[in-house]
Design a protein that fits this description.
Mean pLDDT: 76
Number of strands: 2
Radius of gyration: 25 Å
Distance between the termini: 71 Å
Strand order of the largest sheet: 1-2
Helix content: 25-40%
Order of helices and strands: HEEHH
Largest sheet: 2 strands, antiparallel
Structural class: mainly alpha
Shape: extended
Length: 104
């Protein structure tokens, strides 16, 4: 058994920007005692954030694909819309009167 854990695909692609965001916040807290701290912009390179065209700063969720392309292709081929089962679920539901009315 090797010492390296087996992680799901896309794990490191999502972990890296998260660590960058945490590192950015830690750097700000580390300099909190300074009157005029030198602080990088969160949307600068390797900070884990991006700036939209509207000027909104949003997190970078992943540096690469979250799922392998083979799995994405498999999910695209799968048909989730089974109309017969949804009709059966609707017919299985029944109206039940629990006698909570104030008519008594």
């Amino acid at each position: 058994m090797s010492g390296k854990p087996v992680l799901p695909p896309g794990y490191y692609a999502a972990l890296k920007p998260h660590i960058q965001r945490v590192n950015h916040r830690a750097a700000l807290y580390k300099r909190a005692h300074e009157q005029i701290p030198e602080k990088p912009k969160p949307y600068e390179d390797k900070q884990g954030w991006t700036k939209t065209s509207d000027g909104i700063v949003e997190p970078i969720w992943s540096d690469g694909p979250i799922l392998p392309t083979s799995l994405v292709d498999l999910l695209d081929k799968t048909d989730y819309e089974d109309t017969d089962s949804s009709e059966e679920e609707e017919s299985d539901e029944m109206d039940v009167d629990f006698g909570d009315s104030d008519d008594e």
